[in-house]
Amino acid sequence: MARIAGVNIPTNKRVEIALTYIHGIGPTTAKKIVTKLGIAPERRVQDLSDNEVLQIREAIDADYTVEGDLRRQVAMNIKRLMDLACYRGLRHRKGLPVRGQRTHTNARTRKGKAKPIAGKKK
Questions:
Q1: Can you tell me which residues the record assigns to a coiled coil?
Q2: What is the pLDDT of residue 88?
Q3: Residue 58 and residue 19: Cα distance in Å, rounded?
Q4: Of the residues 30, 60, 91, 101, which has the fewest C-beta atoms closer than 10 A?
């Protein structure tokens, strides 16, 4: 197994697909990396030489924020919004949808399981 950016990449998959296992690298970014380095996209990870794996590792380290650094950056951005007490920060703090979705009905994923309220008594 090749280890890139602290992630064990599956060896039996194509390079483009395997790179998407790294948090912060999607299909488009993986395609850019592979074409920039001149690696055939249909090649499997197990067929890559150590030098090619090293090139991929260096390209990712140089050009992209991935894994722990990216997670930390996103968490810090959310924390900054919460500290500013702006509208988006307050929504994050309350655990409600941030981007203007309705909450009268729906938003169950963000709000959590529905809390039962006393129904109409007969």
A1: none
A2: 96
A3: 13
A4: 101
Q: CA 46 → CA 13, 98, 114, distances in Å?
A: 8, 43, 48
- Full-model pTM: 0.79
Please give the Cα distance from 65 to 63 (Å, whole number): 7
d(CA 29, CA 35): 10
Q: Are 1 and 46 in contact (CB under 8 A)?
A: no
A 10 A CB-CB count for 66 gives 20
Domain annotation for the chain: domains and CATH numbers: 3-67 (1.10.8.50), 85-121 (4.10.910.10)
Query: Do residues 73 and 65 lie in contact, with contact meaning Cβ atoms separated by under 8 Å?
Result: yes
Task: Please name the amino acid found at residue 114.
Answer: A
